[in-house]
Amino acid sequence: MSQEVSKVRPGLKALRKKAGLTQIELALQVHVREQAVRAWENGGAVPSFDTAVLIAKALKVSLERLAAEFGLEVDGTPNEEEEAMLN
């Protein structure tokens, strides 16, 4: 795991706490186990896109903001695979 990604992961915990949620409460809201939330916060895993949408809603942040916490960039430009699906 890269150093850069593990640096941004604590931001997810901060967003969760700012939303006033425990790991268990967030897990219940996004239909996962508490261990999954812990793994996301510790850098051991990244949620699926569908789950990320639920997390963003639960934390009241944009999907772009949440993606940034995982070191991902959402630019709205389709990649080659997405482009092929559109055509």
Explain this structure:
The chain has helices at residues 3-8, 10-18, 23-30, 34-42, 49-59, 63-69, 80-86. The protein is built from seven helices and no strands. Mean pLDDT is 82; it is low at 1-8. With 87 residues, the protein is mainly α. It has a single domain (3-73), classed as lambda repressor-like DNA-binding domains (434 Repressor (Amino-terminal Domain), Orthogonal Bundle), CATH 1.10.260. Helix 3 crosses helix 4 and helix 5 (49-59) crosses helix 6 (63-69).
Structural features:
87 residues, mainly alpha, 434 Repressor (Amino-terminal Domain), 66% helix, elongated, disordered N terminus
How are the elements arranged and paired?
Elements: H1 3-8, H2 10-18, H3 23-30, H4 34-42, H5 49-59, H6 63-69, H7 80-86
